[in-house]
Amino acid sequence: MSIATDTFAAWLGVLVETIDEPGLTGDEVAARLHLSRFHLDRVVSGVAGEAPSTLRRRVLLERAAFRLATGRRTVLDVAVEAGYGSNEAFTRAFRRAYGVSPSQWRSRPGTLRIESVNDIHFHPPSSIRLPAQRKVSVMDLIQRMVEHHIWLTGELIECATPLTEAQLDEPIVINVDDDPDPSTLRRIISRLVGQMAMWNASMASEGYDFAVEQGESLTSARRRLAEAAPVFLGHVREAIEQGRLDDVFVDASCDPPYTCSYGAMIAHVLTFAAHRRTLAVLALDKHRITRLGWGDPISYLDAAPTPH
After folding, report:
1. What pLDDT is recorded for position 212?
2. Burial class of residue 84, CB neighbours in 10 A (0-12, 13-18, 19+)
3. How far is the C-alpha of 21 from the C-alpha of 272, rounded, in Å?
4. pTM of this prediction?
5. Which of 24, 218, 233, 307 is 20 to 30 A from 172, comparing alpha carbons?
6. Separation between Cα atoms, residue 234 and residue 229, nearest integer Å
7. Which distant-in-sequence residues (6+ apart) come within 8 Å of 135 by Cβ?
8. Is 186 within 8 Å of 213 (Cβ atoms)?
């Protein structure tokens, strides 16, 4: 490492350590690194393309946005924690960064990260995200899902080891949802569609009405699929093409709200959808509708694209 990047790395360490000291001055930070304020500002600005005080304020503002979206503290409390002396000053800075007031953001949050030249951001719940050495690609995501599958399979074996033979052989009532009622083909189809519509709503900071899935007709499911699928696919394509699989958004539909990366959301959808699809094709098979087989993606992915 060069002296400049070494100094910058040391400054980042101080930034992480002092994230809960919003009143810390630039002179005090420089003193902790045994440097002059002028020298520290020159090095950090040269490496990061952003003055250290500006970078620090931005990270604290991103943390404030997270606090507003997921907590119950007052706007003034969040403002003070972010180092602002008044609600008015905080509101002005927040509106410049996010385009809305803190109160409006709280009711309808979105992407936490403020655009920057260095890709250094606050990462919920309490850390700082540094630039990735490489962007997550589609193949990287698939590889990570396989790695997760292998790890989880091993964990399942370890967790099952203490069970008796009888316990291991007990029949399982299959249901992936927290619902006392048994799954049906109708309910599975409705949930497959609803899962995409639900995440579309979450990414738009809107609520989702699960009541539409109660006894839903196939006509309704077909219509909702035509509406939800292109939007969901658009989110996935955009995240992949722009290298934003590790970007996070706030899911305000939950109580309390929580943050989720686009990559984690895609992996979640694919994981639960795979189980539901298997249940659905087995249900169809009982009625001798077999053209879908197991719903294996191999033949679909290997087929030549349909000409338009």
Report:
1. 94
2. buried
3. 42
4. 0.65
5. 218
6. 8
7. 243, 245
8. no
Query: Tokens for 77?
Result: 């409390």
On whether the CB atoms of residues 257 and 207 are closer than 8 A, the answer is no
The three-point CA angle 175-245-57 to 5° equals 120
What span, in angstroms and rounded, lies between the C-alpha atoms of 256 and 70?
6
Query: What is the mean pLDDT, run by run of 10 residues, along the chain of 308 residues?
Result: 77 84 83 89 90 90 92 91 91 94 90 86 80 63 74 79 80 62 83 92 86 90 92 89 82 73 88 88 84 80 54
Residue with tokens 């899911």: 251
Rounded Cα distance between 283 and 307, Å, is 32
Residue holding tokens 């930034």? 15
- Give the count of alpha carbons within 13 A of 205, CB side only: 15
Per the structure block, which two tokens stand in for 239? 């995240």
Coil, helix or strand for 215? coil
Helices (H) and strands (E) in the chain, counts: 13, 4
pLDDT at 307: 43
C-alpha span between 93 and 225 (Å, rounded) = 41
Among residues 30, 1, 2, the alpha carbon closest in space to that of 15 is found at 30
